[in-house]
């Protein structure tokens, strides 16, 4: 092994000089070991060098290399904790380097679960693919990736590109994928899991592979609802064919974000896996559209640096909203723009960073970016906007861009003052509320909404007929919600007729809003709340259960019995049942104990983060903090998902304010593994 060890690393790792060293392809044959959570493989790269004597760099975090062969000759190399570098054997023109490596990644590739519940998945953006695959952190280094993975034959192995071969070897399968065009390394993806699979086809015959856990097989239609419609809409609206060989989507447990737009392969959180009822409370439509839009905006054309990241997130947010407009209508579109504008107006009072800044907030990059695009389209017209976007994508496909590249295409198709636009919308942190609203004020939704808002200061008797007329027509739910808001302080008997009309609406959110408006339910409304048990909304069912149980004490056991088999989305109905059951049976040791035991069981790692956190919150509410709960909190404090870590840390620190909990942590530390004991020490010694 010709490995030069660095005893003194006095310089930081410098990015590749991509002007003189240009990687073209990266092929890898990879094996993953689920038991020691390692990855190893053989990598071959083709690259071109313009000037001789250049040091070649490949990002590789804490990896061990066996040997490096350049142009069929073993060479000396340096491998530190960030990069593999070599100079020997490199010539001007075309070169080939190959090497074997092993890594034990601490981030970017994650192992979770065991046995049939095992999942292995990646997240490259923000974490760096170079933690598990030698690659390139610089987004400007675009490479064609051709990857093969060998793993247990009972699992699906999914990655970027088109599956071209499956080799079966006793208990394992080698999956080989191929790509035709280059992409940035942060878009490399891998998921290994047991799935059920369905395939649908776009109008342009692109295969769209859909995956779900075996237990969720009946949820394909509701989870992936409108997928084909969104795909077809984008190809038509953008005017550029889908730029890759295939497209697939798969959910994973405890994913770090809502979704990630890896090239040809979106990975998303399993919290968006829903049935037909759950779809009405929380669905995958927006995330689905957002990540798919990135296949053009971000993957095909990539921002050169973080300062221009809005070219990815602003576009994906706006085009996702356009897709939702296609599915849900104009009123939905304008309401979403209004909600974004309200958020941006509030945020701009404190946020000093414009869109074109390395420090731009997520809200600015996504939602202000979307608004900026809407402003351009509103000023130059849809056809010119579409033409500019098409020209932009065609001109810069498979390369990187900055903001002026896009604005130049706007200027080419119109006389729009892009310089003034840039200064106001992209280089200024202020959000111009008045200008924004002026672009949507003439929409049907805004006219209706403003008309209702203007009734706020009108006496009830003088606007009752207006409300009656509105409730007899179909409107978007914000109109109904505004009516409920204005009725809040009106005596029940005066608004009684309108309340019944609101309950009769088919709008689930409107019904939820009026149901929430009563602290205690008037007796004659009891049947209306009980009807909500059949609503196509798990949130509505949960709300009705709590309200009825609170108001009608004589019927508490009845409501507990009714909800006995309810589950809901992310167990929301099961939690409601267990909480009410525990409170109602505080003096029955057997029933109470079994209820608490079920909640404690839901804090363990078999469940996703949302469920575990909710279980812990419910137990804290019941003042039931067992050692199992404390252990679960310690486990969550080192979880890969930052939201779980924050929740666990905040909760532990609050609990440690009492001596009783501190003493219990001390006892737990004495019987725990060294790793857990060390983590407990961390909190005890803060």
Main beta-sheet annotation: 8 strands, mixed
Decide which structural class fits the backbone.
alpha+beta
What's the multimeric state? single chain
Please provide the count of β strands. Answer: 23
Low-confidence stretches: 1-13
Q: Roughly what fraction of the amino acids lie in strands?
A: 15-25%
Distance between the termini: 45 Å
Q: Provide a count of the helices.
A: 25
Helix content: 40-55%
Shape: globular
Radius of gyration: 28 Å
Largest sheet: spatial strand order: 6-5-9-3-2-12-15-14
Mean of all residue-level pLDDT scores? 95
Task: Describe this structure as you would to a colleague.
The chain has 686 residues and is an alpha+beta fold. The protein has 25 helices and 23 strands. Helix 2 crosses helix 4 (310-328) and helix 13 (477-487) runs parallel beside helix 15 (508-516).
Protein topology:
Elements: E1 3-4, E2 21-33, E3 38-49, E4 56-59, E5 63-70, E6 73-74, E7 77-79, E8 83-86, E9 93-103, E10 109-112, E11 119-122, E12 144-152, E13 156-159, E14 162-169, E15 172-178, E16 190-193, E17 195-201, E18 207-213, H1 220-223, H2 227-238, E19 247-252, E20 259-260, E21 265-269, H3 285-293, E22 301-303, H4 310-328, H5 330-347, H6 362-380, H7 382-396, E23 399-401, H8 403-413, H9 418-426, H10 433-438, H11 444-453, H12 460-471, H13 477-487, H14 492-504, H15 508-516, H16 526-531, H17 538-551, H18 556-562, H19 572-584, H20 589-601, H21 609-621, H22 627-636, H23 642-655, H24 659-670, H25 674-684
Parallel strand pairs: 1-7, 2-12, 18-19, 19-21, 22-23
Antiparallel strand pairs: 2-3, 3-9, 4-8, 5-6, 5-9, 7-8, 10-11, 11-16, 12-15, 13-16, 14-15, 17-18, 20-21
Helix pairs in contact: 2-3, 2-4, 3-4, 4-5, 4-6, 5-6, 6-7, 7-8, 11-13, 12-13, 12-14, 13-15, 14-15, 15-17, 17-19, 19-20, 22-23, 24-25
